[in-house]
Amino acid sequence: MRLEVQVNGGPVARDIEPQELLLDFLRDQLGLTGAKRSCDVQACGACTVLVDGRPVSSCCFLAADAEGREVLTVEGLAERTGFERLEDAFTRHAALQCGFCTPGMLLTVDALLKTGELTSAEEVKRSLAGNLCRCTGYRGILEAVCELAGVTT
Amino acid sequence: MNRVEEVQVGAGAVGRSVPRRDADEKLRGKAQFAGDILVPRMLHGKVLRSPHPHARITSIDTRAAEKMPGVVCVLTAADLADLDPYWGHAIRDRPIVAIDRVRFAGEPVAAVAAENEATAGAALERIVVDYEELSVVGTIEQALAPGAPIVNEGPLRPGLFHGLGELAPAEGNVCYGYRIDRGEIEAVFAHADFVVEGEYDFPAVYQYAMETHTVVAQVEEREITLWASCQHPFLVRAEIAALFQVPISDVRVVVPYLGGGFGSKSYTKMEPIAVALARKAGRPVRIQNRVAESMVTTRCHGMHCHMRTALNREGRLLGREVECWFDTGAYADNGPRVTATAGDAAPGPYRWAAYRVDAACVYTNTAPAGSYRAFGATHLQWIGELQVDELARRAGLDPLEVRRMNLCTPGEELRAGGKPLDADLIGDVERVAEAVGWGTDKPKGTGRGLAVGLLAAGAHPVSSAIVRMEADGNAVVLVGTTEVGQGARTVLAQIAAEELRLPVERVTVRGTDTRFTPYDRSTGASRSTTLAGLAVKRAAEQVRQQLTEIAGPEDVESDSYPELFVRHFGLAGGELIGRGEVAPEGSGSYAEGPVFWEVCVGAAEVAIDEDTGRVRVVKTATVADVGRAINPQLVERQDEGGTLQGLGNALYEEMVYEDGLLMNETLLDYRVPTFEDLPEEMHCIIVENGDGPGPYGAKGCGEGSLAAVTAAVATAVADAGVPMTELPLTPERVWRRIQDLKEEGLWPR
C-alpha cells in the first residue's frame, strides 16, 4: 500500500506493507535511526516519536496510521529552533550516558514542555515514567527537565 | 603511586566536570550503534530457539524454510562439521547451535539468513524440529539432588580466558568450586556470645541494557569482520579466531557506541552464531536480539546461600561461615569468575579470627548466567550485612559502632596473598550514615540501614594505548576501551589533554577497531579509568616528551605545537606517536590481585506500608571512593545509575522460572526502576584520598553502588522490623513476613 506522510517537515511517499511498523518504516525505509528499538511492548519509550505533536511508541504504531499526519523524529527535532536549549540542558546536567534512550526521552520532553504540563518535579517524574533509562539513575534528566520547565528539582 | 597533591600542572583537564564528548552526537540521534550500521549486501539473521528446557533433538527439517523466496540459507549443527564448534571463555561447553540436545529454553537450534528480517522470522516457523523431552533440572536444589540428570556430561574444557588456575573435574552438576579458609572456624563459633544463622535466596536478574545484543558479521577470504555490541572486543576477537581456526589478526572487531552493557555484553555472546551464519550465507548478516532473546542470552546468577556469623559481647566480629551455590544455567558463561568473586566478597571487609567460604557454580536447565555490574558483591553483601546488624541488635550495640570496631583499615590484609585494603572504609561508612540522618529520630514504619562491602576490581591488568599528534597540534587517542555509556571517551580524552597540555576539545577518542586500536583486555570490572587511563597517560607523556625535546630549553604551550612539527619534520606534516602500556607487575597471577578493591558502601532510609507490604526508598547515600575523580560529574552519574539498579535488585527485579521456563520475558512483566522510583534524597559522595593505582591516584567506580544500595535497602527494611531472607522485597513477601511476625508477637517491634 501507499503511504503519504510528513516526516520532519517534508513530504514522504513510499510503498509499505500493511503491517509495517512506524519504527521500521523510519529506520529501514528512511534511514532515520535516531528512534531505537528496545522493549517492543510500549514499556521503555526508546522508540518514541511525535505524531501530530504527541508522543507515540513507534514500535507499536502502524506506519499506515501515520497517513496524512506529521511525524517528528529526533533528527527533525535537532533541526528545529529551540533545540539548543534542550541540548544545552541535557549536556550540562550529563542527562545521558549510553544515549540509547535519549532520542525518545527528548521527544517526550519536547512535547510535554509545549503542553505546559510540567508544573512540578513530581509532575516531571510522573510524565516521564514511560521512558526508561537504565544508565543515569534519572537524576541528571530530572535536573535538566526541571530547569527547562522552570520548576525546582 | 601518584598522590593527588602532585597533580596541579597542565591544562587542568583532570578533576573538572567537562561535558561529555559524545553528548552532541547522542542528543541529535547521530550516534551509531551496532543496529544502525548498514553493510553492503547485508542480510538479516533470525535464530530459532528451543521451546524446551531439556530435550533430545530427533530431527530437523529445514527444506520448507530454504525454499521460501528471500531466504538465503539455514544454519544447523550439520554445517559445523569442519569445526570444533564449542565456545565459552571460562569453560568451552557451549555449541554454536545445539548439537543433538538442547539444555535450556531459548537455546539456538538453527538460524536463518534472509533478505529482510520479516522473511527470516517467517522462515523460522517453517523449520520443523522434533524433540524428545528430557527431565528438567530447573533449580539449584534439583541440580544438587542425588541422582539428578547431568546437564553437561564429559570433561570440562577450559576456555581461553578462564583465569582460574587448574580446573577441577565437574562433580555432578557443579562445574566450579571456590574455597577460602582462615583460622579455626569451629573453635571460634564454639566460643561466640552471639551467632546468627540463616538461609537466603538471591534472584536471577536481567541486566537490561536497552540496546539488545546486536552483531553484524562478514566473512571474507582473509578476514572475519564483526560490528558488535560487545564490551570486550579483544577477547571476542581471540575466541572467534580460535573457534573458526584463523589467526587472531584475521579477525577484526569494530565496536560503535554501546547502548548499555552492565556486564551483559562482556565476553562472547551472539558473535559465534552470527559468524557461522555469515560464513554459510557468503554475505554479511546482522543478528539483532529482541529483549526476550537477550534475556536468555545472559543474565545475573540466582543464588542460594547459607551463612552464619559470630560476635562476642564486646562487639568484636569473630567468624563467618558461608556456603553458596550459583545457578549458572546450562552453560558456564562467566559463572566460575562470578563464583570466585562472590567467594572473595563473602566475608566482607572485617577483621575476622576465622572464616570459611565454599562457593559452587552449578549447571541447570535455564539460560546461561554471566556478569552483571558488581557481581558477587551484590550477591553476598546484603546477607553479610543483615547478619552484622542482627548481631549488633542482639548485643545491644549501634550497627555503625560495630562497623567502626571491626572494619579493616588501610594497609590491612583482607585475603591471604591478596592486595591489602586500599581505602578508608570507616570514613566512608561514617559519611553515608551522616547523609541519611543516622542516629536521628525516625517516624513509625521507617528503617535505616548501612552496608559495607568490597569488590575485587580491575580484572587482568593488561591495557595499551596509542596517542597520535598531528601537525595541527590536535591529538587522537587509540584505546580499546569501549564507550558503554560510562563516559570513557570523555575521561580518557581528559587524561591525554592533561598530559599534552591541550584543551580537551582538541583530543579525540575514537571507538575501538581491533585492526588499528591497540590491545585492551576488557571494559568491565571498573577498570577503564584505572588501567586504560594509565596506558593513555603514559602514551601522552611520550608525545609530550618528544615535543619538549624538539623545543629544547624553551617552555612550550599548545599554540606552538604546529611550529615544532615544522621545525622537526621540515614541513607542516609528520606525526608524533606515543605508546603506553600497562602489564601485570610481579607474577601477574590473579591471586596477587585485585588491581584495587572497589568500595561498596551505602546507606538507605525506607518507609514500609504495613497494610500492603510496599517498601518505599526515601533516602540513599553511596560513596564513590575513587582516589581521584577525573570527572566528578560523571562519577556522580555512575553512582546514581548504580543506585537505581540496586533499588531494582532489592525491590522489583527477578526472572521468574518455572520448570526451566522463563515466565516474565517482557518489560511489562519484568519491572525495572522508572523515574517514579527516584528516592527523595539520593546522595552520591565522592571521596578522593589519592589511594588508587591509576592515573593521578585514581581508581575505578560505578559498580559498588549497586551492591551497596541493594544491601542497604535490605538492612533498612530489617531495621524497620522486617528481616527478609529473599530478594526482591516485593510487597507480597514483605506483607507475608509482617503477618508471620505478628503471629510470633514480634510486630510491631
Structural write-up:
With 153 residues, chain A is α+β, with helices and mostly antiparallel strands. Chain A has two domains: 2-77, Roll (Ubiquitin-like (UB roll)), CATH 3.10.20; 83-149, DNA polymerase, domain 1 (Orthogonal Bundle). Helices cover 35% and strands 15% of the residues of chain A. Chain A contains six helices and five strands, in the order ββαβββααααα. Chain A has helices at residues 22-29, 74-77, 83-92, 102-115, 121-127, 139-149; strands at 2-7, 10-15, 48-51, 54-57, 70-72. A five-stranded mixed sheet of chain A has the order 2-1-5-3-4. In chain A, a hairpin with a 2-residue loop joins strand 1 and strand 2. In chain A, helix 3 (83-92) packs antiparallel against helix 6. The mean pLDDT of chain A is 98. In chain B, helix 16 (632-651) crosses helix 17 (704-719). In chain B, the strands form seven sheets. Chain B has an eight-stranded mixed sheet with strand order 3-7-1-14-11-12-13-22. Chain B has three domains: 4-31 and 462-583, Aldehyde Oxidoreductase, domain 4 (2-Layer Sandwich); 41-372, Aldehyde oxidase/xanthine dehydrogenase, a/b hammerhead (Aldehyde Oxidoreductase, domain 3), CATH 3.90.1170.50; 396-458 and 591-743, Aldehyde oxidase/xanthine dehydrogenase, molybdopterin binding domain (Aldehyde Oxidoreductase, domain 4, 2-Layer Sandwich), CATH 3.30.365. In chain B, a hairpin with a 6-residue loop joins strand 4 and strand 5. The chains are: A alpha+beta (153), B alpha+beta (749). At the A-B interface, helix 3, helix 4, helix 5 and helix 6 of A face helix 1 and helix 16 of B.
Largest sheet properties of chain B: 8 strands, mixed
Number of helices of chain A: 6
Shape by Cα distribution of chain B: globular
Helix content class of chain A: 25-40%
Contiguous low-pLDDT stretches of chain B (5 residues minimum) are 1-10
CATH overall fold name of the largest domain in chain A? Ubiquitin-like (UB roll)
Strand content of chain B: 15-25%
